[in-house]
Design goal:
This protein is an alpha+beta fold and 78 residues long. 17% of the residues lie in helices and 36% in strands. The chain has a three-stranded antiparallel sheet with strand order 2-1-5, with helices on one face. It has a two-stranded antiparallel ribbon with strand order 3-4.
Length: 78
């Protein structure tokens, strides 16, 4: 699963590749919990063990998608 985070007042995005055992619904619940508090902090750990924290007040958007291995690209993709 991949998580892409947009941060306000910056053109760059954070892209995290989550571990295979990561539950998508649990990640979405963690995002919701962080956004429910005005001073909340979103903490996520990627597949390499890197921990990333973003203040909830600076989140522009969060995109949760299927793993990049699951995506099909090219002429044969449906």
């Amino acid at each position: 699963m991949d998580v892409r985070i947009g941060i306000t007042q910056t053109a760059k995005e954070l892209e995290l590749e989550m571990g295979d055992e990561t539950d998508q619904e649990q990640v979405v619940a963690e995002i919701g919990a962080a956004l429910s508090k005005s001073d909340g902090m979103l903490w996520l750990t990627d597949r390499r063990g890197r921990r990333v924290g973003v203040p909830a007040s600076k989140l522009a958007y969060v995109e949760v998608t299927a793993s990049s291995e699951a995506r099909r690209v090219g002429f044969g993709a449906p």
